[in-house]
Each structure stands twice: as C-alpha cells, then as structure tokens.
Amino acid sequence: MSASTPPPSPPQGPRPAHVGRAAGPPSGGPVSALVRARDFSREVSRALGAALATPTEPGAPLLGQASSRWVRLVPYVVALAFVAALLPVTVVVLINDYDVNGGIAGLLATAQTAPLLMAVSRPLQAWWIVFAADVVAAVATLHAELPPNRPWPWTPMVVVGYLALMLAVGLREQRRTLVGVWLVTGAVGFGFALFTENRGDVIHLIMFVLSGAVLLITGMLREHGVAQRRLEEQETISEAERSRRTLLEERTRIARELHDVVAHHMSVITVQADSAPYRIQGLPDAAREEFSSIAASARESLTEMRRLLAVLRSENAEGERAPQPGIDRVQQLIEATIRTGLPVELTLAADVGPVPQAVDLSAYRIVQEALANVVRHAPGARTRVSISRSPNLEWLIVLVVNGPPTEPVSPLETSGTGHGLVGMRERVRLTGGRLDTGPLPDGGFRVAARLPLVAPLP
C-alpha cells in the first residue's frame, strides 16, 4: 500500500454501549493519578495526625496506626531516601575535603546516616548512635588542613541528617528528653568551638538553632495531639456518664409516676380488707383476723411506698396533685399540640377499651414525648398518631409518624430528661413491650410501640 492511499475505514456496525457515554479521561489517565495522589496525601496527613496524638511507646513506628500498608511504609521510604542521598556524599566529602582515610570515612558515614532508618521506631537510640558518630568524625578531622570555606565540627551532610533525626525525636519523645538532646547538641558544638578558636566557623551555632527550632515545633505538635486525644477521651467518658445519668433520672421519673398506680391498687386492697367483715355476714373470727392482717399489711406497704417516693423525689420537687394521665387524655394532648402550629391527626380505635394502668400511663407518655420531639426537631411536619389493639387483642399498638420538617432542624434527641427516646425505651421495657424507632425514606421519623394487655407485667 502506498503512502498516499488512505487507510481503510473501520467496519460499520452497532456501536458498543460504552461509546455513547460522555467523553472523559480514561481511568488510568493523569486525572485519575492526581485523584489517587490526593487521596494518598490525605491518608498520610490523617495518619500523621494520629501519630502526633499517640503517646510515646517503645518500638512504635511513625504512622504505624495507618490502615494502609503503603502509608505505614512512608517513614521508611523517607528515611531510606535520606540515607541513600547522604551516605555516598558524606564518604566523598570526608575523603576529599577532610583528609579522612577511605575505610574510616565509610564507617563514619554509615554510622552517621544508616541509623536514620532506626529512627522511625526508636529515634532516641538512633540519636545516640548518630551523635556519637558525629563527635567522632569531628575529632577525626580536628587537625585536618581545611580550606577556609569548609565548616567544622559539623559538615553540611551532618546538619541535614541531624535535622531529619530531630524530626523523628520530636514526634516521639517527651519534653524533658527533647530539652536534654538540644542542650547536649549545643554544649558539644560550643565546646568544639571554644577549644578550637582558630577554626572560626559558625556551623555549630546554625545546627544548635535549627535543631532547637525543629524540636520545638515537633514537640508542640505532638503535645497538642496528645492533649486533643485526652480531651476526646474525656468527652467520651463525660458523654457516657451523661447518658447513664439521663437513664437513671428517667427511671426515677417513671418510678415516681408509677407510685400513683401502685398506691391506688394498695388502697383498694386496704378498703376491701377493712370492709369485708361488714359486707360479708357470718365470717368466722379467724377470717376476720386474716382480713385485718391484710389491711394492716396494705397500709404498711402504702407507708413504705410514700417513703420510697420521698427518696426518689428531688430536693426541690413537690408532689404531683393531679392524677396520672392515660389514653383518655390523648385527645387533649393532640389539641394542645395543634395549637402550637403542628398539624396532627389522631386515630383512636373504638375497641381499645380498658387497659392496665401502667400500660395506660406509658401509652400517654410515649405519645407525649414523641410529639415533643416532633415540635422540637421537625417543626411544621405533618404528624399522625394512632392507638389501637392488635388483631389478637393482646397488644396495644401506639404509632406516631411524622413527615419531613418544613424548617431547619437539629438532630433528633436521643437523650434527655423525660422527653426523648430514652424515656420511651424505658417505659416500653418496664411493661414488657417492644419499641421500634427510625427514620423514614422521605425524611420523616417513626415511633411504634407494642405494649402488652393480657400478659402479666414483669
């Protein structure tokens, strides 16, 4: 085929499904690589933050808390890069500029740079080795004839490697250790300068200042991370204690309310036992004494109940004078809620009939607390309240469903003093029922309670 012959056109046929998609960069293109690099850098930053917030632990490597293996390898890669760059340069400089024997130069350069790999997990031990090698190298070059522009006692490679080492030391060691490392560095450097005045170099001052700055910055970052971690731990403990206190307060509140229910039954027992000898003719003396004993025990139980209520009641709380509410007062509750501007629809089945008093009170409180949550966290949402019996007549079904809010809202309350999900759960648990709560797909919320009617209460 000649060069002027146009290439054959591709065969026409049905286009693959992916051809019709919007044009964009391929999955392996530069944009995808940038995204991966960005995600990787973010993970490294998060891991570094976790490393700063971790207290000193022997053998704990930097970024060791990262979930990705590649992120955990980053400190080793950086340390290896420093070693690979500084080791050969240090050997060449010691031999050519400081007249050090080749073998000794190799040993000193290895001791000055190789421990940087060890500094990832044990920075203080690495500092001892590196600093000792730096001092030995300074002594070995003490009498060397140096050109005027050659620094001493520290070479530029020593300064670079030492600052990298200070970064690891500052991120892992305590403040007292950092101050000690810095003072030893300065003391040795100024000591060399003091006893060798003819050198007249300021490299020791530069190393002292720069190492102090690195230690100061990394130490402050680490202490800030530790303080942040301790604050988060304290907040977690405080939240747990707050939840526990809320639960106890709610149980106490429920117990105070149920006092009226129990006191009513005990009063009925007392009246029946006291009036039995007058209502039933011909009772033997043994039966009269038995009824009298029952009435006395009931009165004593009422007295103990009042003492228990006094213990449960807070110091400034006064006894409630109104009777405890029930399902018959739900209609009044709905009307009061509607007056606040919340559209509420009530469906009260006609076959609800009489229910146990504890269940009656719990059903009312569940509706009350559910409506309070709607008013507080979903203002303006349409709400439906339904109370009915289950088909087998063994359960009382209480259902409160609200739609999405029409105004900005705050998160739904999960802890509070009598007006949250905690109170609902405790009331349902008390009666031996079940409670199902959760958000709806349209943004609303649902509260469904099943309270037993025929089974004995626990």
Automatic annotation (TrEMBL):
Biased composition (Pro residues): 1-14
Domain of life, source organism: Bacteria
Keywords attached to this entry: ATP-binding, Coiled coil, Kinase, Membrane, Nucleotide-binding, Phosphoprotein, Transferase, Transmembrane, Transmembrane helix, Two-component regulatory system
Domain Signal transduction histidine kinase subgroup 3 dimerisation and phosphoacceptor: 250-315
Keyword ATP-binding listed: yes
Catalytic activity, EC: 2.7.13.3
Protein name as catalogued: histidine kinase
Organism: Streptomyces changanensis
